[in-house]
Please model this.
Amino acid sequence: MAYVAGDLIKDDEFNAFVANSSSPFGYNHFATVGATVYGLGQAIIPSVVAGDNTITASQWNTLLAGIDNVANHTNDSMTARGQVTAGDTVAIKAAVAADLATLAASVAAGSPNATAIAASSALQTVTTSAEGWDSTATQEVSATFANGNNMRYFFNAGGKIRITVGIVAAATSDKDTAYANLGTAIGNFDINSLTSTRSGSGETLTTDGLANGFQDLGTGYTVLIKLTSDNTGYTGNHIVISAKTTGGAGNSGDATVLTIKMVATDGAADTQYTDGNLSSIAVGAKDTPKMVTTLYTVAPTTAQGLNPVYTVSATASVSNTVS
Model:
C-alpha cells in the first residue's frame, strides 16, 4: 500500500493526522511521547512546513507504516489501502482519521489485545524466614523504570507487572493447605495499565480493587484484592495485595517505581500442639507456612511492529517481615 508522487493532500490535513493533540488524535500523540494514557515511545513523524502544499509519497508512507506497526501490536484491523486514484481523496481522509482514532483508543486502554508480550523469569523471590509466624507475614517487591515516560510506554503497550503468592510448607496440614489454596486462587496477579487481574479463581473475594491499574495508583497503597480462605476452620485467614507508585498518581507521568505489597494474615482460632501432646499430631501442624512472593514482568516485544519497546531497569525485594 503505497502512495505515489503526485498524489495530493493538504499540508494542514497531513499535520492533523500526524500531530493533533486533541481528538481526533494524531499519530504522534498516542504513538510517540504522548501523555498520561497515550504514548508508546516510537519515533516522532515530522510535521510539514505550513504552505508546503505537496505531501510526498515518502511522508505518506512513513505515516502509514507507523499506523501499521502500532496496529500490528494492538491487533486492530486497519482499512485496506491501495494507490490513490482520482476521486479517492475524501474516502482516504475519512479512513485515516478513523484508523487513528481506533489506535488511540487501544493505546488509551493499555493495548489489551496485544499478544507481542512475554513473561520474564522470576526477577525477585521473597520467602518468609521461618514458618510459625503468629499474626501477619508482609512482603514487598518493586519494579523501577529509567524514567516516567518509559513506565507509561510499558503499560500503554500492554506491559504488566506480575506477582505470584505461594508457600513453603514445613508439614502437610490444613492450615498449609488453606494458604496454598489462596495462592492458587490468586494465580498470576497482573497489574495492567487500567486494571488488575488474577488468573486463578475461587476462595472468597472480600475486597475487589481489580478496577485499579497503574494509572490509578498514588504514593499510598491501594488495595487491589483481599482474598479470604473458604476452607473450614480457616475463614479468618486471608491475603491482601496492594500497590503504589512514586511521584504521584501513575498517570501524572513522573512515577518511576511501582511497589507491590503482599500481606498474609492468620486469623484462625486454633492452638499449637506441644511436644507432650498425646494425639500423635506433629507439633507444627497448626503453624503458618513460609510465604513466598515472586515478581515477574510481562513486557512488550518487537515481534509485531513496535520498535523500540520498554521494560523495567531494575527490581528489588523491599521488605520481608512477620508479626
